[in-house]
Amino acid sequence: MKPASRKSITHDKKLFLLEQLAGKIRLDSFSCPIAEYNEYLLNEAVRSQNDRMALTWLFRERSTGAIAAYMSLIADAIKLSVTEKELHNLDYPFKTIPAMKIAKLAVSASFQEKYRGIGSLMIEMAAHIAEACNEHYFACRFVTVDADIEHNESVMEFYRKNGFVPNDEMNNKRRKVVSMRKDIIVQD
Ligand SMILES: CC(C)(COP(=O)(O)OP(=O)(O)OC[C@H]1O[C@@H](n2cnc3c(N)ncnc32)[C@H](O)[C@@H]1OP(=O)(O)O)[C@@H](O)C(=O)NCCC(=O)NCCS
């Protein structure tokens, strides 16, 4: 249950820092209602990072070190339909378009009770990371996500509110996840 009096994280975001997962950080304090997301952070995130399969970022409270949220990011490439390419002004013959995927995203229940907007802030920070790739390393046009409707059936609404739309090309009817994308370039 989320209290109506929750503060916006934007007022307190300086009390937190975003840092990459590292061996010395204790992960067992994190807890969200979906067990799979707790288990991933505790048991799989370090291995995935060492194997260059997913890089995990932790949003931690400076004063306590507690993990308020985490996200795992991976390189991605998405197919777009002809209509979608037109929508994004992408007149290229390539089969796929470069992207970065938020492979995991979860907010700790205790911090979610205190603050609204942590999930949205994580998406904003993911978009900044994608922008940094564009400025310094390689091109990335979209931030993508497989919205996990199996575990959180209304979660597409959260992503919609954060500028994501479902992908025509990558979705079918029997689905546990819905592939969604957010354009890095804001169209006029
Ligand atoms: C989904 C999750 C990341 C959202 O984080 P959050 O900090 O609660 O989200 P925010 O406070 O930034 O919410 C932004 C908006 O989305 C809405 N929203 C958030 N989660 C939602 C959901 N599951 N269904 C519908 N709307 C949702 C909020 O009400 C808010 O709307 P508003 O701006 O109109 O007030 C978080 O609930 C979570 O970690 N869930 C468990 C793991 C999970 O499902 N991860 C996503 C897997 S793809």
CATH superfamily: Gcn5-related N-acetyltransferase (GNAT)
Residue share in β-strands: 25-35%
Alpha-carbon distance between the two ends: 38 Å
Mean pLDDT: 94
* CATH class group: Alpha Beta
How many independent structural domains?
1
Number of helices: 6
Return Rg in Å.
17 Å
Biggest sheet, open or closed, and with what strands and sense? 7 strands, mixed
* CATH overall fold name: Aminopeptidase
Low-pLDDT windows of residues: none
What's the CATH architecture? 3-Layer(aba) Sandwich
Order of helices and strands: EHEHEEHEHEHEHEE
Helical content class: 25-40%
**Distinct small molecules:** coenzyme A
Instruction: Tell the overall outline.
Output: globular
Structural class: alpha+beta
Number of DSSP-assigned strands: 9
What does this structure look like?
The protein is of the alpha+beta class. It has a single domain (7-183), classed as Gcn5-related N-acetyltransferase (GNAT) (Aminopeptidase). It is built from six helices and nine strands; from the N terminus they run βαβαββαβαβαβαββ. The chain is globular and about 50 Å long. The N and C termini lie far apart (38 Å).
